[in-house]
Amino acid sequence: MVxxxxxxxxxxxxxxxxxxxxARKQPLSKKTKKSHIPNAVEENDSVFVKLLKTSxxxxxxxxxxxxxxxxxxxxxxxxxxxxxxHPSYPKIIEEFVSGLExxxxxxxxxxxxxxxxxxxxxxxxxMGTSYxxxxxxxxxxxxxxxxxxxxxxxxxxxxxxxxKMTSDGINMPRLIISQLKWLDRVVDGxxxxxxxxxLISVAPxxxxxxxxxSLPEILGDSQHADVGKELSDLLxxxxxxxVPILDVLSSLRLDPNLLSKVRQLMMGKLCSxxxxxxxxxxxxxxxxxxxxxxxxxxxxxxxxxxxxxxILPSRLQASQSKLKSKGRPSYSGNQESRGQDCVILLFDVIxxxxxxEKIISEAxxxxxxxxxxxxxxxxxDLAMLLIIYSTNTQTKKYIERxxxxxxxSGCIQEQLLQSxxxxxxxxxxxxxxxxxxxxxxxxxxxxxxxxSFGSLLYKYAFKFFDTYCQQEVVGALVTHICSGNEAEVDTxxxxxxxLILLNPSAMRLNSVFVxxxxxxxxxxxxxxxxxxxxxxxxxxFSKQHEASSHIQDDMxxxxxxxxxxxxxxxKLIGIIGAVTMANIMATDRSRSNLTQGRTDLxxxxxxxxxxxxxxxxxxxxxxxxxxxxxxxxxxxxxQGGKLAPKVxxxxxxxxxxxxxxAFVVDFCVVPEGDFSFPVKALYGLEEYNTxxxxxxxxxxxxxxxxxxxxxxxxxxxxxxxxxxxxxxLAPHFRxxxxxxxxxxxxxxxxxxxxxxxxxxxxxxxxxxxxxxxxAKEHSFMCSLIFLxxxxxxxxxxxxxxxxxxxxxxxxxxxxxxxxxLQKILEKYLAVTPDYVPPLANFDLETLxxxxxxxxxxxxxIRKKGKIGGRKRKADGSKTSSPDTLSKEDNSECHxxxxxxxxxxxxxxGKEEKMSVSLQNxxxxxxxxxxEVFSILHCGLVTKFILDTEMHTEATEVVQxxxxxxxxxxxDLAQKVENMLIPPVARRVxxxxxxxxxxxxxxxxxxxxxxxxxxxxxxxxxPMCNHLENxxxxxxxxxxxxxxxxxxxxxxxxxxxxxxxxxQRLLQIFLGLFSWGGFFEPENRxxxxxxxxxxxxxxxxxxxxxxxxxxxxxxxxxxxxxHHSIPSFQCAFYLIRLLxxxxxxxxxxxxxxxxxASLARQFLCRVWxxxxxxxxxxxxxxxxxxxxxxxxxxxxxxxxxEIAGVGVPELINSPKxxxxxxxxxxxxxxxVIFFRVMMAELEKTVRGLQAGTAADSQQIHEEKLLxxxxxxxxxxxxxxxxxxxxxxxxxxxxxxxxxxxVEAFLKQCMPLLDFSFRKHREDVLSLLETFQLDTRxxxxxxGHSKIHQDMRLTKHVxxxxxxxxxxxxxxxxxxxxxxxxxxxxxxxLKNRDLQGEEIISQNSxxxxxxxxxxxxxxxxxxxxxxxxxxxxxxxxxxxxxxxxEIYDDSE
Length: 1450
Fold this sequence. Notes:
Low-confidence stretches: 1-11, 23-36, 307-333, 592-599, 712-721, 854-914, 940-954, 984-995, 1170-1174, 1401-1450
Oligomer: single chain
Number of helices: 58
Structural class: mainly alpha
């Protein structure tokens, strides 16, 4: 039947082609039978004309329209009835059609029949519409005529196929086909379909497009399937018809299988189709998607679409975006313009699909979410996320979550984002508001990497979008700056500064928004104020001066107003603002990029700068704190190296004279005055035998200041003498040193006398007089030592980079003086508890800064870090061994008693009350510069040459001893943590003083994290030397004393100093390699350099080693240190360091077992300490145990070993002892072990996939065995609460017990469903064991209720609900396996942990009907019937006694 149809079609096709060829040979003009009088009425005796006239149609000749005298429906009805009632019916139909054929042989007549009829005026107001159909269309609406007229039309049509247009501009084929559209009824749809498809096969291509696109308007629904099949066949034969065919297929009701087939065909051709066709193809593919195959189709589509069609044509846009940034876009040709239009149209199609089809938008997000590799993420993916975010509001949260995860994992990087905006900016411009909304949402994150990504969104929106969008971007950033959230403000300010560098002219247009931030200065930290004034000054003083004069005026007003304030906070704003503005005004134009087109500083501009600086100086000289802040800010300006030479020369001379007059006196002139203590010149590095020596006049200045505070202020003012505050000594010297250094290219010979000159002090060692001194004298001595320490710290900052051996030796000596003074200071502070030292860092929001005490300031200690060493480094700092862990683990950590006990052991002669840690006073010490750590290169020996009268008198050896080394390492460790550890890992508590984490790091914060990382990498070689020396020290110690710390010959103080150095070195290594910046392409070389240093310690350095090899060698090098680890803290840092190295490898599995083995060794080692329970930080032990269980090969076996071996040893040991196998497991640390084991057990079983019936028998057996082990471990752990019943243990049991039961329900019960018949005994044994565990959980619920412990009872309702679900689920499993009778319910009594029944009021009244049954199911192995069809096992579970109602509010 099919073959016959095909044959007939081919014959018809041939005949059509013959007719068409004849038509081409015979011109249409020759077919005109006769000439008509224009506009005359057709008059002949044919049946056709007569019947039409009778029915109401008047045929016209020439170009006049046929006239319709009656309504269209009435005409059709009259004609139908006339034909139907005619005596010669049905022959009359043939005559009528024959008359029609004769009539339309004339071209004009045929055209008139195809065009709409003219309605007579007197009929226009009749019923119906004013639109009139053509005569042919009216005749087609009559059923008895339709088949014959359709045949006539298709016979007539070939005559016009190859004539594109008639003389009057009418396309006849299109006009003929249009008669068939939207017919009320098609009499023979199948025949019509056949004719049209034949016509399509022979028509010219331009008509094929029209005929195909007309199909949905011609055919009825019943013909859609046949047409779809025909079109799909045609699609494979003729690719040029792809667009119209797909367009039609999208409009037809077709079988999903056919659509899927065509879609697969199109997917295969995506690589070869023209760009113009792409939007229609994508529209069809998206239209044909179903819920079941959406993810698969979208995944394939995003693979091919991006690579083949989006990047290449869109690069045309990228090239023109540069032109657009300069002016209007100019196109090099129509082809480029059309390419852009096609890409925009393509995205419009996709937007429409994701807006109205939820399955498409969700599948697209899932397809992108499932990508793991960084390299597989494409530009198109990111563009799609942004588009879906803008079009589908329901998926916004989902997209934000996906983006956050991708950003955290490093999958979406800046380069990808930049390329997305560059290539698709024309498309993304339309969704600008949504992009800004997304950026705003990301800004509210706590993760700095996510906030930075939001900043990049703002940056590229500003760069690639139009002026309106730029204005919105600036407005959004200003809103963030005024929000008060520290991370938001910092990032938004950085983003604004980038925008200024990116497009200064565009930013100047929006400067009025930025200027408005001046009203919100109160809520900003000093560092933020610096950034803001830098931004405003850059806008105000860059190229176009005149356009920015209003900003200059406003800045001058604000600065003068703030400088004149008597409140320090506002004066601080004025000083910072003025110095920052002076920095931009006086920038050296030969070096700067910000002041393009400007000449060198003129005399007038130089005068403006000096006038501004003199104003600041005069407004701050009455306040020591303001003066010190001014000196520090000015020093930072000079350190930046951008000050113009003219200004630098003026500043240098002014500062030099001011410092010499204020603080330097002749050595031979003994200060006069009624001082409380005898004045002595101390800490000189040379013997002054001549009168030309100098000294720092410290004690007299401090005494004068105290005297002024006590009432002598008026006297000093009346005498006209300026009161010099010793508070300004260190800041003033820093400014002086930087001026000299900048003027003389690093040569400090002009001021080198300040390195070795003595200081006028008094005897500082308290000795026996400490107790006899008054509180005032104690405070005076403390202040004197603080000021001396800060002087020495600035001296070390100044001269640390001098190269001569003599200078290096003197710097090392100053370091020793600092360490000695800190020891003395601790003694004074121990007896002066309420003492507040003089400030050393002045960029504070308030002067009301007090030292933290060990108790009240625990939060701040936690923030700054608890040191494990003997003294506190002077620089401001934040970390400690336990604390770094706690921050990285996002858990709180309190200072451990071991730190205090360790400190006491360093000074065994001290009493406990004298144990004072200088870390609480870190705010009151001057900051060490990062350059100071070049001292680590000195090694342990440096020659110090003493010159007298140009002759070498003696040579002395000076060493960098362990105390000095520890001092430097502590400071460096805190700097590394502050700059390289991500802020989210050291989150500032809510309502914490903004900027407090940067106190003591203001100079450090002037640098980027890349600079700090580079400096630390440069220090890796000397730090490796020190690490190996300390390793050898402990190795020798272990050999000599068999590892006993307090054995004979062990110097306890030296031991703990070396252990602290060890810890600090590992901490610095960990901070460096944990730095997220190594993932950025520009820092990859830095990572290679760092790893090469470690690798070179094992073997000679080779050129261009692969990264994997470097990581492996570095891992091996660091792993070798585990033998000499002196403390648990060091062990923890070492294993974390190895993990960080391992994370950078692409194949970490091979070393994973080494981590687990090492962690187990550390857990099984006896750590040297007086008190075991206080030696180990809880957080660190928790983390190390997690590391062990996460990296071990079998979690269940590891848990079984600890719970089955270690815990019984602990139970049988004396109270203060620990387990012999796991010495870290004691009664004090049991709750940590218990919590980690329960959590890891639950995590492990939750990650096990639930079995399916389709799995093999072997897989079923393996999973059943696994669950048996898991339930056995759970049983062992849960029964430990009978021995260890403290509240923390019970809390862990309630929390993780419920989670384990939930995992059992979801993961294990489906396995038991289809394992029950084949493994009946194993399943029953498993349920029996688990039933005992759940019963114990039920007893625990009763215990919590009786003790009315809120922390416990809040878990009870959820746990009881889960236990109920378990009972129902077991019953369902038995019914599924035809064992309904094996399940029975009984009452389970409420009992406590000891098994004693809990007597409730209801049970005493014995009102059984008031209690809802508590199910208890006891699984007993039953007899099995002979035919094996039934299981009579009593499989009964247990649950809930609901006459006890538990509520969270109890």
